[in-house]
Amino acid sequence: MKKYKIITYGCQMNKNDSERISSVLEKNNYKENSQG
Q1: Is 1:29 a contact under the CB 8 Å cutoff?
Q2: Of 10, 4, 1, nearest in space to 24 by CA
Q3: I need a labelling partner for 33 at 20 to 30 A (CA). Which of 5, 12, 20, 27 fits?
Q4: Domain that holds residue 25
Q5: What pTM does this model have?
Q6: What is the pLDDT of residues 1-36, one digit of tens each?
Q7: Count of domains observed in the chain
C-alpha cells in the first residue's frame, strides 16, 4: 500500500490545501502515514 505524509506550514489556506490534497490521495488508494 502506498503511504503519504503532508507537513503543513503557514496560514489556514495552506491547511485547507493540505486537506484537499489528502482527500485526492486517499481516493487514489494512498493511506496517511501515521509514523514520524
Answers
A1: yes
A2: 4
A3: 12
A4: 2-32
A5: 0.80
A6: 899 999 999 999 999 999 999 999 999 999 999 886
A7: 1
